[in-house]
Structures are given as C-alpha cells and as structure tokens.
C-alpha cells in the first residue's frame, strides 16, 4: 500500500543530491477523484506528448538536461482506493528556450490490474520531435508551399515511435507478464533512484 504523503516527503528529502536545481514535489491540483503532484521547476518546456500541448515547468538535472516529474493519484469511484500514474520526461535545451527538445519519457501507470496492453513500467521515445521542431523552423523561413508539403510528406512515411510503450521491466524470461504493479513506497523509490543513476550514466558519457 502506498502512503502518498510519506512518498512525497521521501522523494523531496532524498532526491536533492541528484539535481542542480532544488527538488520539490508539491500538489498542484485536486478534484474529488484526481490529485496531481509535480516537481517545481526553474525553466519552461513544451510537453509535446500530451494533446493539447502544454507548457510545463522543468527543473535542471545537469548541464543542459532538464526533467519534468509528475505523479497522479487517481481515486476509484465510490471508494477510497486509489492507484498512481508516474511520469518522468527528459528535455534538452537552454534555460531560456521554452521549446526544448523532448527526448524520452518513462512512465509507470498502475491501473490495478494484471491485464493491460501496455507494459508497466515503460518508455516512450520522443526525440523525433526534435526533428519536427527543426522542420517547423525551416518551413517558417520558406514561402514555397511545395517545400512545406515535402517535409510533411516525408514525415508521414516514418512510423511515430512515441506511441509505442517500450517495455522497461518485462519478466517474460520467468514466464511472467510485462505488468508490474506499484505495491508500496519502497518500490517507487527504488525505481526512481535506479532510473536516475542509470540515465545519468547513459547520457553523461
């Protein structure tokens, strides 16, 4: 069972050593069935993964890499039971650039069932959006419609990989499923800090 208040406290207390910015998660909105928690940021980025696009506050990880971290607490109808959706998105760009490159996203969505189409936890690869941003920038410098149409045509030929939920921790080798439930605070903390250490090694080489 997850204790959300204790989880937020532990994340805030233990995460500061991993970031150049001060790390602080706080509740930003609440309805009867949904509470949203986000880490405070010192810069902005466009979250192109969500539709409509949303400007979000991101915090500096290291160098020109930034993170957006969100926890959603979703309460089941007519009960006090809840499940969590965790989302970590990594951006790259200058502090003043509000349209930073969105590189990838790690998610762990617990829908309280072992039967889902999408692996939990999983990756979304969003770095192709850097090319989309470049295409848009170039297109704005040209008046010829045929050039813009050519870019759109080429873009339509490439499969949009950001829609795939790439398995992060499938347990098929032990004849188990690709679904891992969020069972307690410790499982979230181990996942979070494991991701930070792993990604830092992979990116900062």
Relevant terms:
27% helix; 205 residues; 9 strands; alpha+beta
What does this structure look like?
The chain has 205 residues and is α+β, with helices and mostly antiparallel strands. It has one domain. It is built from four helices and nine strands, in the order H-E-E-E-E-E-E-E-E-H-H-E-H. The protein is globular and about 55 Å long. The termini are far apart.
Shape, please? Answer: globular
The number of distinct helices, counting runs of at least 4 residues, comes to 4
Q: What class do helices, strands and sheet pairing give?
A: alpha+beta
The count of domains is: 1
- Taking Cα atoms only, what radius of gyration do you get, to the nearest Å? 19 Å
Report the sheet-strand fraction. Answer: 25-35%
Which residue ranges are poorly predicted, with pLDDT under 50 across at least 5 consecutive positions? Answer: none
Estimated helix fraction: 25-40%
Measured distance between first and last alpha carbons: 37 Å
Q: How would you spell out the order of helices and strands? A: HEEEEEEEEHHEH
What profile does the largest beta sheet have? Answer: 9 strands, antiparallel
- The strand count comes to 9
Mean pLDDT, nearest integer?
A: 87
């Amino acid at each position: 069972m997850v204790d959300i208040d204790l989880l937020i406290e532990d994340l805030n207390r233990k995460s500061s050593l991993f970031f150049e910015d001060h790390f602080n998660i706080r509740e930003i909105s609440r309805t009867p069935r949904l509470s949203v928690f986000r880490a405070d940021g010192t810069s902005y980025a466009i979250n192109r993964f969500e539709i409509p696009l949303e400007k979000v506050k991101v915090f500096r990880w290291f160098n020109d890499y930034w993170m957006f971290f969100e926890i959603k607490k979703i309460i089941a109808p007519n009960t006090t039971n809840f499940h969590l959706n965790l989302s970590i998105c990594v951006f790259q760009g200058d502090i003043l650039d509000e349209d930073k490159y969105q590189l990838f996203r790690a998610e762990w969505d617990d829908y309280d069932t072992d039967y889902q189409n999408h692996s939990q936890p999983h990756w979304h690869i969003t770095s192709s959006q850097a090319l989309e941003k470049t295409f848009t920038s170039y297109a704005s410098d040209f008046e010829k419609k045929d050039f813009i149409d050519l870019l759109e045509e080429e873009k339509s030929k490439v499969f949009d990989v950001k829609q795939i939920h790439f398995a992060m921790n499938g347990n098929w080798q032990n004849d188990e499923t690709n679904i891992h439930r969020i069972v307690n605070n410790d499982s979230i903390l181990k996942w979070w800090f494991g991701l930070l250490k792993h990604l830092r090694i992979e990116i900062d080489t």
